[in-house]
Structures are given as structure tokens and as C-alpha cells.
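Here is one chain, start to finish.
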Amino acid sequence: MTAARWRQERTVHADGTELAVWERREDPDAGAAPAPHVVLVHGFEEGWDSWQPLLEHLPRTVRASALSLPWRAGSAHTWPRHGDAATWLSRAFDALDRPPDLVVAHSFGACALLQLLARRPAHPYRDVPAALVAPVWRVGDRSLTPEFFAEARTRFRHTITEGLKVQLHTRGRTVNGELLRIMADKVLERVEPEGFLQFYLELARLPDLPVERITAPLLVVGGPDDTAAPGGDLEVLRRRARDITVHRAPDLGHFCQTQQPAQVAEQISDFLPMLRLPHSAEEMRTA
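Its structure:
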């Protein structure tokens, strides 16, 4: 798949911040049945186009909308002055011309989605099924201690650097370690301190998140060595959620939607028929 198959369909502005919707429409020859609308939510310092490797492996009948959100790469990260991540995600959903049948969210985006799904009173997107890819889900930390703050900052810097490395590789660029360090320092110079502080505040909300309110089916895809969602913390999510499927594989990293897209797409493709959309299981697996 190439970027030419995507189109920027809509752009809206709220409080001086741009939200954009990029779309890949379903294959016109795929059949007359309504295509499931899969909405893609990127992580912190990523972009809508980070989903392109994954879409190469999803059924061609899927209609995909990739959101460009305020925490995208290059952001000044002043967006929290006008709402938390869940609020901005809801605004982006409002810009869609059709509600999502499934939302697939990565890392920080998955954290925002969980917070939106757990909100009360009920909102229009409360029952939307969700696939959480390498979610940021750490509830066992004592989030307001100096020790955790320092550890979280170290992990944040590591993740930003790893994400930059993945983006460069995806775009066909190879850089040596010293050049990567210089590029990462430039990114961190822009992102810190405001970006990290907002990321940290989102993490600090997770232990009190009322997951039991979430009525939507959830799929979690990730690897056991991903420090963003330790195994014990994921077990807490599994116990508290009403309807959840967890798939963890040893070779899945934090950026598995880009590095292991076929495996992630397989889990999503198997999850879609379980949602009882207007497609048979066989259609979705073989399309």
C-alpha cells in the first residue's frame, strides 16, 4: 500500500488545534455489503501514516480512517490546555462522517481511548469496540512519587528514541547510533518538558480509571516484555473489564503495528467477526 491510496478527507480546528481525518476507502470490487469502518488512533509523537504497514494486512473490504491527533509528531503539545486526551479523541470522532465499528489505538492513543470508554455520563462512543495495541497501561506504579517521576521520564525518553528509529526504518532510512542520538535529542528538546508532563499526567489517572464501566468489547495485543503494560497490570485490566480478549506474543514489541503488522492484523481480523458486524466470519478472514 502507498500513501497515494489515502486521502485527507476532513480537517477541523478546535481551540487553535488541527484535527484531520485521512481515509482509505474499501475496495469497490469487494462486494455490496457495508464495509466495517475501522478508525485508527496513533500514539504519542506518531502520525496517521504510522498505520500504513498494518493496513497492508487487513481485509481489503475494510474502510479505514486514520486520525491525525494533537499529540502527533511535531506537536508543541499545548493541546492539554483545552482538554485531556480523551476529550480531543471525542472531538476527532465527531469529525467522522460515519461512526466507527472498531477503533484501533496504539500506546498513548490506547490510553486515551480507555479513558473515553470509561467516561460517565454515557457518550456517543461508549459502546464502540476497541483494539488496544501495546497500550500504555501501568496501574501498579505509585504515580506521584519522585522516584516514579524519574523512572517514567527515563522510559519516556527511551520510547521516543525507539519510535524515531522505527519511523526512520519504515521510511527506508538507516542512520548510525550517533546520528540517531542527535536526532532524538532534537525531538526531546521540543517535546520536553511540556509533552512529558502531559504524558505523565495521563499515566497518573490510570490507577483510578473505572474500567468496570466499559461495556464495549476490548482486544489487547502486545508483547510480554513491553514495559508500557507489565503483565501484572494487564491482569488487573483483564479482571476488571467486562468483555476482553488479551493476546500477548513474545516477538511483539511496543511498535508492533509497524514492526510486526501481519501478526497484529491477524488478531484484529479475527476480532472483527466476533463483533457481529454485517459480515460473516468467513468473509472477514478471507477478504
